[in-house]
Amino acid sequence: MKERTVLVTGASSGIGKEIARLLARRGDFPVLVARRAEPLRELTEELGTGAAYPCDVTDGESVQALVEEVKQTRGRIDVLINNAGYGFFGGALDIPMSDYEGMLQTNYLGAVRMTRAVIPHMLEAGGGRIVNIASVAGLTGSPNLAAYSASKFALIGFSESLDLEYAPVIRVGVLCPGPVQTPFFRGEDPSRFFPAPIAKRLLDPKTVARHAIGLIDRPRVLVVPRTFAPALVFRVLFPRIYRKIAKKLYDQHFQRQKSGDPVAESSSTTIEKMK
């Protein structure tokens, strides 16, 4: 297999970092993108390959300049993995408008900017692959995740539309993980929404990274873990019943939290990534 140039955003930690490691092991050339320069430099030294490009995906001019530089130095961009993102827990009216805008700018529009900059080069080269890291929160809404869910719903819709427009020349896959053990959500979940059983079953970022790499060769909408899939299918087939059940479970958990139930309290573990 020939060496592919793979551009990865959000590569300084978590899922992006594990994706970079897997790419290096496969013999690909990872182009690592994140806002912080030092973690990227350290990662390229660890990998012994690749290139680091500090860049803020919310800055359109910087994104365009980055893509042009990679094209000039590498000749082509074979794969784009849009992984940059962050989120906050909080009620729909509790989260400041600035955080709504910030999550949309990074989680959704950051991917759009990078994609729009890369696609012309992929078309010129005769094809390419795009993998967008979304979330199960982008497939079904959850209390205290309105702002984050909205950004991921947008990313999934963009991904599916893009694949229909450009397939088979450019294929687009989208990965929708459940909660992951990564430094993502900033600070403790103030609502303590997640039940303890979920908090104890966070996905390993290495597992998520492995699935992301798999989407390069087999693009599709993929939910991880698959145990989430039946509930999502049930939601589509029986939306009213699903909403009633989800609302009842949330209300029960909220009441336990108010009463000081230790099971509810134990879910105060920091949930780092909802993907």
Task: Tell me about this structure.
The protein is α/β, with parallel strands linked by helices and 275 residues long. The chain has one domain: NAD(P)-binding Rossmann-like Domain (Rossmann fold). It is built from 10 helices and 9 strands. It has helices spanning 14-26, 37-47, 60-74, 97-125, 146-166, 196-199, 205-217, 229-237, 239-258, 262-265; strands spanning 5-9, 29-34, 51-54, 79-82, 128-133, 170-177, 179-180, 221-224, 273-274. The strands form 2 sheets. It has a 7-stranded parallel beta sheet, sandwiched between helices. The relative contact order is 0.14. The model is unreliable at 262-275 (pLDDT under 50).
Summary?
This protein is 51% helix and 15% strand. It is α/β, with parallel strands linked by helices and 275 residues long.
What labels describe this entry?
seven-stranded parallel sheet; Ketoreductase domain-containing protein; 9 strands; Rossmann fold; single chain; disordered C terminus; alpha/beta; 275 residues; globular; oxidoreductase activity; two-stranded antiparallel sheet
What's the quaternary structure here? Answer: single chain
Under CATH at level 1, the class stands as Alpha Beta
CATH architecture: 3-Layer(aba) Sandwich
- What do the pLDDT scores average to? 87
**Distance between the first and last residues' Cα:** 30 Å
Can you tell me the number of structural domains?
1
Query: Level of helix content?
Result: 40-55%
Largest pleated sheet: 7 strands, parallel
Instruction: Determine the structural class based on helices, strands and strand pairing.
Output: alpha/beta
| DSSP summary: helix tally | 10
Order of helices and strands: EHEHEHEHEHEEHHEHHHE
Q: Return Rg in Å.
A: 19 Å
- The dominant shape is globular
Strand order of the largest sheet: 3-2-1-4-5-6-8
- Beta percentage is 5-15%
CATH topology: Rossmann fold
Unreliable segments of 5+ consecutive residues: 262-275
CATH superfamily: NAD(P)-binding Rossmann-like Domain
| β-strand number | 9
Pfam families: adh_short
GO molecular function, one term: oxidoreductase activity
GO cellular component, one term: membrane
Protein name: Ketoreductase domain-containing protein
